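Input sequence (674 aa), recorded before submission:
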Amino acid sequence: MTTLEGPALGIPTGSLPGTPGELAHADLVGRLAREIYGQGQAASQPFAPSLPASPQLPQGLESLPQGPGGASLPAADLGLPSAPAGGLPSGLQPDAASLGARSFGAPPVGLPGLTGPSQANPVGATPAPASANLLDLSAIPSVHPYPAQAKLPEYFVPSLPEVAAHLPGGTDLHRQIAADHPRANAFAHAVAPSLVPAAPGKPGGDVSQEHFARFGHLPHPSQPDGASDYYFLNPAPSARKKSAAQPRVEPSRHAGPAPRVTSHGSVPAGAPFDVEHVRKDFPALHQSVNGHPLVWLDNAATTHKPQSVIDATSEFYGRHNSNIHRAAHTLAARSTDLFEGGREKTRRFLNAPSKDDIVFLRGTTEAINLVANSYGRAHIGPGDEIIVSTIEHHANIVPWQLLAQSTGATIRVIPVNDRGEIIFEQYAALLSGRTKIVSVTHVANALGTVNPIREIIALAHAYGVPVLVDAAQSTPHIPIDVQSLDADFLVFSGHKVFGPTGIGALYGKKHLLEAMPPWQGGSHMIEDVTFSKTVYKGAPEKFEAGTPDIAGAVGLGAALDYLESIGLPAIAAYEHDLLEYAQEGLAEVKGLRLIGTALNKASVMSFTVNGVSNEAVAHHLDAHGIAVRSGHHCALPALRRFGVDQSVRASLAFYNTREDVDVFLRALHTLPRP
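Predicted structure, token format:
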């Protein structure tokens, strides 16, 4: 196969970079292409990063394998593999039949500040806080060596089916990925060693496997042995020494009071989690349905509201009702203060740098649509790629599909294993110079899987790609810190966090929100309007056209106050114990198949029962006063991965009890069978 020369590509020779550093980087691109294809005699051994004691990315690419004997591989003027010199291997120029979906030589992606790491700013244009769990990428050169106008040939990676068709290893997916993408595998292992074994072909020789055999779960990069089993309760490494020990539940398998919260460190444990006291705050729980006390197990769809939220909303309409921002009278001032107070409480709940980083919207769905239509239409075009996972809610699929259809972009999907966990090394293989955004759920609404969101973000940032986090199902259960996660966008809904319906929030990094154009136009989002030109306000106002849900923002603030008064770490620990208790009981129900068995899982149980329709199961439970959901849960691709179109879903909240679970299990045991 011949190597294309510069003039053949329509690129003037004089326009090519000529400095030693640029040529060395061009040579690196050529060697990467040969390694990815693994053809001929080209060097193909996996990248072996030299990792520091703390979890970081590989320190530089100079340790990439060279040619035989360690000599540097040759490079043509274009940075492509050249003809063999002496005993060195010949290069590879892929033909048209080899072209796939991903490029390592594409132009820079994203906004300025997200096109590659630098010494001053390793993963984004917004300086990260000292507490953030960031990776040191300063020694890794940019993966985009040429300006957009160079129009160099693009190197592609074959798709997974193509890989599987030609590589040995049978159905061992990880071995195939590691063999076909050794650099991606090593890179992913450096970012997330708990998720990607370094040497999949050496059973028992991997740290992750040894940890699993010893502790019964995979390690987390930020969690030392002996720390909390609930990794989402542990702070970032940089903040751990300054933080008090996080609580966990002392599990018990007998009847009695709610589990007590204990501490792993020397800090005294907090007060016991008094679930009966909590339940008194929720009036909707104290009613009968079909002659039985209500057991609410539909919390993933919506949560009930504490009295404080009901009172705050009612008081707004009873005493303070007024439109905001645009009047000088007293009630307008009160309403404005209450509305902006809700924004500040949301900022505090997420630990956002500024309340101006918080945009109020109707909920998670509208927030994702805003990002897709504003950021997406400004930065995504033909041939670009959007990465989502198999286990997304429809709200994190359909907006991106609409964007892809209108722009010519492509959606790439991260697969999941049989437990419902994303295959991290395949996610690493999907990332490339074509990727323009990654949009993934933190907790899967149909399966309960808790995704390794910190590692997902870190790896995307190594490619200069922003990440949107769908936190609709994680915010009611898990402490969220957008600065520690280094999330670019994060969205959630009020009615999932015990607040009103019709209100939600988008967090965005300041430089991203400032660069995004408005999506909807109308009142309040403008500075000035003439028939020839409109001047818009800055974020967040430019995304909040029209009269907002003022009472909803007030109620959301009250709900977040309530959650913080209880403490999300204590909530997470209590719910984790309750989930384990419930899943142990489900295992004893004849013919029941649990869908979604991730090692790290939130309070969701999706299941089917052999021989009984999902709707019949839900109706039977409802007759006993138990509210569950049956259907596709707005997550058809996730369920179809497990061979079903629908399931029954029972989901827990911190106001549920073991007695609730026992009633639920007894009703399942009495389910009529055909």
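Checked by second reader. The CA atoms of residues 358 and 634 lie 26 Å apart.
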